[in-house]
Design brief:
Hypothetical protein af1432, HD_domain, EC 3.1.3.89, mainly alpha, about 190 residues, HD/PDEase_dom, 5'-deoxynucleotidase
């Protein structure tokens, strides 16, 4: 097998592994009593959309933020979605180490590119990184509001704690607006 064949196989292996994110649930919500929480992939998708929107509002690069958000939880195929309370008791590999293992056999450009994205998300301080972190928190807060609507009253703590961690003015403004809306308010203008 040639190096190109080996790299193609390693890259496809990584892509197939990412499919597991469509099946893996965000386990922190089980603590709040949510019986069927969203998947990691569902969370990452909306985080990328929110990140793009926040970047536009904050004058950051929307494509860069979407990329950071897309890859921010990809390591959870290997270590799972460890809720904050569980992290107190566990010592897990860094996201950079997990990512290095995930892409070890991928095409070198793919491996180095993905590793750079994850390292930047974990340690960067650019406006794009700040916005990406806010997008992750804002998505969690909005999801919590949706779970509150569904009757999961324990989601209130997640809503309040993630709201308190937001840094950008745009994320704070969107969080404030979200608290006064329902999950179907977006369609009301079309029902008139």
């Amino acid at each position: 097998m040639t190096d190109d064949d080996q790299h193609a196989k390693g890259t496809v292996s990584y892509l197939m592994e990412m499919g597991a994110l469509k099946r893996a649930r965000r386990s922190g919500w089980w603590i709040a009593g949510v019986k069927d929480p969203e998947t990691i992939a569902e969370h990452s998708f909306r985080t990328a959309v929110i990140g793009s929107v926040l970047a536009m509002m904050e004058g950051a690069d929307p494509a860069k933020v979407a990329l950071l958000c897309t890859f921010h939880d990809t390591q959870e195929t290997r270590v799972g979605d460890i809720p904050w309370i569980g992290r107190r008791y566990l010592t897990a590999a860094s996201n950079e180490d997990v990512t290095a293992d995930q892409v070890a056999d991928a095409h070198p450009a793919v491996a180095s590119g993905i590793q750079a994205i994850v390292a930047e998300y974990e340690h960067g301080d650019s406006p794009e990184v700040v916005v990406a972190h806010d997008a992750d928190k804002l998505e969690c807060m909005i999801q919590g509001l949706e779970y509150l609507e569904q009757g999961y009253v324990n989601a209130r703590e997640w809503v309040d704690s993630t709201r308190a961690k937001l840094k950008t003015a745009s994320a704070i403004a969107l969080a404030d607006a979200a608290q006064n809306m329902t999950s179907i308010d977006w369609q009301r203008t079309y029902l008139r």
